[in-house]
Design brief:
8 strands, TIM Barrel, single chain, alpha/beta, binds pterin-6-yl-methyl-monophosphate
Length: 280
């Protein structure tokens, strides 16, 4: 498994637990909205087996509008500081350079930008200066109108090629190649078929030569897979077993980390994947 400059090394796929400090996130919106509850949630995820915790203050659910900078800072920074003070490895989920920089100052050790640096021209220089790992996710535009951009000839080839271009831009902007993590951005300008094709072709994503983060947790494509005869998908919070199934697949295929809202089943899944991989 590739090492990632600046983060602990895990001997298996890492489990990234999610704390969304938002009133409206896709799957857990409103539940961890005050600082104390959010820090406690992060610590509970660690107790359940999370290796690192991803803290975000802006919902990126399909159709979501943006939160303003002051509000995002108010949501995120105290939670990052609280978790880092407890010794937790913290990642910050933000598209804003100012939030990323303040979060790193508060103890975050990874910047997870769903726009891969496209949303804020200051992001790449800020992360380069902070010298922390950076998640480059495949992204074609803000959530408010991303559904219209879910148009591909061959989704796997196009996502790999767009990620390669983005990685080159990020490196040209000063972020060391050994600090980059890549992510296909499941559900971002993608329909269920696109997401499934990407999960089925993780090997092609490995060709980019960087650690791979997979964030399938509770997403619409899982609801689509699980929908019964009447076509009604289970609610987001009822998709955790399906999420763990993707975690096992991703871990077995060599993903660096999986990002999930409920950690326990995924913590087991990545251990089973490691054991099966070792017996291969
Ligand atoms: N998805 C969401 C939020 N952050 N970060 C990365 N790197 N990759 C993702 O696919 C991703 C992300 C949206 O999910 P949520 O609002 O349900 O947590």
């Amino acid at each position: 498994m590739s090492t990632l400059n600046g983060l602990p090394e895990w001997d298996r796929c890492a489990v990234m637990g999610v704390v969304n400090v938002t009133p409206d996130s896709f799957s857990d919106g409103g539940r961890w909205f005050d600082t104390t509850a959010a820090v406690k949630r992060g610590l509970d995820l660690v107790a359940d087996g999370a290796d690192l915790v991803d803290v975000g203050g802006e919902s990126t659910r399909p159709g979501a509008s943006r939160v303003d900078e002051e509000e995002e800072l108010r949501r995120v920074i105290p939670v990052v500081r609280g978790l880092a003070a407890e010794g937790v490895t913290v990642s910050v989920d933000t598209m804003r350079a100012s939030v990323a920089a303040r979060a790193v100052a508060a103890g975050a050790t990874l910047v997870n930008d769903v726009s891969g640096g496209l949303a804020d021209p200051e992001m790449v220089p800020a992360v380069a200066a902070a010298e922390v790992p950076f998640v480059v996710m495949h992204w074609r535009g803000f959530s408010a109108d991303m559904a219209g951009r879910a148009v591909y000839g061959d989704v796997v080839t196009e996502v790999v090629s767009e990620l390669r271009t983005r990685m080159e831009a990020v490196v040209a902007g000063g972020i060391a190649p050994e600090r980059i993590v890549i992510d296909p951005g499941l559900g971002f300008a993608k329909d269920a078929g696109h997401d499934l094709a990407l999960v089925a072709h993780l090997r092609e994503l490995h060709a980019l030569g960087r650690p791979l983060l997979i964030a399938a947790s509770r997403k619409r494509f899982l609801g689509h897979v699980l929908a019964g005869d009447e076509g009604a998908p289970p609610r987001a919070r009822e998709r955790d077993a399906a999420t763990a199934a993707v975690s096992a697949i991703a871990a077995y295929e060599g993903a660096w980390a999986v990002r999930v809202h409920e950690v326990r089943a995924t913590a087991d899944a990545v251990r089973v994947a490691r054991a099966v991989g070792a017996a291969r």
